[in-house]
Protein: CBM2 domain-containing protein
Organism: Phytohabitans flavus
Amino acid sequence: MRLVSSRTRKQRLAIGAVAVLGLGGLSVIQALPASAAAGCSVTYTVTNSWNTGFQGNIVIRNVGDAWTSWNLTFSFANGQRVTQGWSGRFTQSGTGVTVANESWNGAVPNGGTVNPGFTGSHTGTNNNPTAFSVNGVACTGTTNPTTGGPTGNPTTRPRRRPPPLPRRRRRRTRRPRRPERASTTRTRVVGAT
């Protein structure tokens, strides 16, 4: 029978405890659902207009987590119709308009923009739409956290600023002294014979 020293036994217990705690911590992390902040802002402008037609330009800015695809929805108020679009796939049902990304412009990072445009027609006034949504989230220019993620108040209040770094004292260097000049005294002898 082989005896295991107490030191080896302690090391094995410590390694086993770390492994159990590590796996337990991983399972807790995996149990939490991922939370993403969704947010967007939209700028809609009419860049050109004529009798019963107009050209619209839309700038969609992602102010939240990155998108792998996007789907913009908005509604016209006065019976406007989209006749042709670019940089997005436009569909319209009644007053509601949906613009889906193209295969080449679906990925939009935080701070990135996409710029679909279109031509349209109208029979009355051509008021701009005022409410836009991307991927089901209202575009307000701020982020809206999605469901999931940790809830409750943090146990410690986050610091607003990091503490200041200690100041380094500047060492004064002494200037070398100027060498003293030898004084020369001139003596004038008067009346010497």
Observations:
- The CA atoms of residues 9 and 171 lie 55 Å apart.
- The chain is about 15% helix and 30% strand.
- Helices lie at 6-31.
- Confidence is low (pLDDT under 50) at residues 23-35, 147-153.
